[in-house]
Design a protein that fits this description.
- The longest helix is centred in the middle third of the chain and has 29 residues.
- This protein is mainly alpha-helical.
């Protein structure tokens, strides 16, 4: 009971000290509204002829820039692929060997099968090797611009070699 009374007394004291009275008296009225500020901002932008925001077209494309975008794209693609495969595995009535036998029954040529396997392995290998590159960066290694370009070329070479090796299996 004493704890409840102490809590109630503490609240009243706190509200009395931090109540809205003194704070509102110290508040300075705003000279303009948010709507007026936005209107002035857009008028200034239109007068200066500046673009709405920096656009990709104003930057010179570089290998690290393209690889960063590709890394994000492969991450999204791999996530979607795994999600779709999982949903299909749950919803389709037959087991995986049944569907594999149906694909084999199509009698696709070895060139087409190898190409399809290469295209499936490519995003996985790229994302993996580029992830290893990012882990090296997290350790503070290879952060100078020439090293970034060299490691990017190494990632591309390792991606092609490991994708080809996986496709050959």
């Amino acid at each position: 009971m004493a704890a409840l009374a102490l809590r109630g007394l503490g609240r009243r004291c706190l509200l009395a000290r931090l109540g809205p009275g003194p704070i509102l008296h110290q508040a300075v009225p705003m000279g303009t509204t948010a709507r007026e500020e936005m209107r002035r901002f857009w008028e200034r932008n239109e007068r200066s002829g500046r673009p709405l925001s920096p656009h990709v077209s104003i930057y010179k494309w570089s290998l690290p820039m393209a690889m960063s975008i590709t890394h994000r794209g492969t991450g999204v693609a791999l996530s979607l692929g795994v999600s779709l495969f999982s949903v299909a595995a749950l919803l389709l009535p037959e087991q995986f060997p049944h569907y594999l036998a149906q694909v084999r029954a199509l009698s696709l040529g070895p060139a087409l099968v190898c190409s399809a396997k290469f295209l499936l392995a490519l995003p996985l290998c790229y994302h993996t090797w580029n992830g290893v590159r990012h882990l090296a960066w997290d350790l503070g290694k290879g952060l100078k611009l020439p090293q970034v370009t060299q490691s990017g070329l190494l990632v591309l070479a390792l991606t092609l070699l490991s994708s080809a090796a996986l496709a050959a299996l």
